[in-house]
Amino acid sequence: MKALRFILPILLILAVIALLAYQGLVEKSLETSDLTKGLIIILGGIGTMFKKPKQRPVANKKALYQKAYPEFIQEPFAEDPKLEKKFYDAVHDYNRDKPAAAIAKLEKLRRECQRTADLRAVTVFTGLCLDDMGRYQEAMQQYDAARKIKDCSTLASNMGLCNQRLGHFDRAAELYEEAIQLDSHNAIAYNNLSALFFAQGEYENALDAARDALECNAKLPQALSTAAICCKLLGYEADYETYYRRAVAAGYDGEKIKRVIKKLDASV
To answer: 127, 139 in Cβ contact below 8 A?
Structure first.
């Protein structure tokens, strides 16, 4: 039993890391929420290995999620412990990939909102849940409403990604730029802009945005792979080798990068 306390969390952590790498390198669909959820699971796995046997898996949801979502959570329902608990239960459902259950809780809480901090938190997480469910137009409405209460870079970037998935590429680019203006260190916004340029075959612009993302986060999976692929396609062999080695050193399958390059070369 003691061994299982270590083996199962380690397997979970490795699976999450592999999934994030796959999303970033192969599917090119990495989002802020994916990274945040992955980090929460990894931290939870580490905590499980070192917790006392009788401790609950999530000892303090409030502390955990306030730390994970500082842009979205500013003491919602702080004046009512019962409503506060219900809110963090809803956030917990979202993080366990149960968006429908989370929305049901959040909609009940919406009627109880007394402060802007309450309403904004409920609105943001409703948007995140709708986004996870692929209901992008509805998600954007929630993000937009939350931004009118208090703007932030991540919400602008999320709106950009929703627009991109709906095929509104020009608007997506505008929103990524808005996100960058709100926070020049938002690696995900640069990364999303890079992915948008890459999908449109604008490899020089995609490379510039990927480099900006790597300035903010040197180990961002998609940015590393995109930079390597763009350099190869643009004929920047020395830079390609550098980004390729960095990607492989970070644990990514170099053969996948080569297959993407080969496929794109063949289509030119």
So the answer is: yes
Q: What is the rounded radius of gyration, in angstroms, for the C-alpha atoms of the chain? A: 20
pLDDT at 57: 45
Contact 141, 149 (CB under 8 A): no
Separation CA 224–CA 194 (nearest Å): 11
Render pLDDT for 169-216 as a digit per residue (tens, 0 to 9): 999 999 999 999 999 999 999 999 999 999 999 999 999 999 999 999
Q: CA angle, 256 as apex, 252 and 262 as ends, to 5°?
A: 145
Supply 245's token pair. Answer: 């080695």
The angle formed by the CA atoms of residues 82, 85 and 88, to the nearest 5 degrees, is 155
Q: Give me 133's structure tokens.
A: 């469910």
Angle, alpha carbons 197-185-241 (nearest 5°): 55
Helix (H, G, I), strand (E, B) or coil at 13: helix
Neighbours of 36 (CB within 10 A): 18
pLDDT tens string 69-86: 999 999 999 999 999 999
Please report, as a single letter, which amino acid is at residue 138. E
Q: How far apart are alpha carbons 35 and 142 in whole angstroms?
A: 21
pTM, full prediction: 0.77
DSSP string, 122-161: HHHHHHHHHHHTT-HHHHHHHHHHHHHHS--HHHHHHHHH
CA pseudo-torsion sign 16, 19, 25, 27:
negative
Task: Identify whether the C-beta of residue 9 lies closer than 8 Å to the C-beta of residue 46.
Answer: yes
**Are residues 164 and 196 in contact, defined by beta-carbon separation less than 8 angstroms?**
yes
Closest residue by Cα to residue 223 from 268, 266, 255, 186: 186
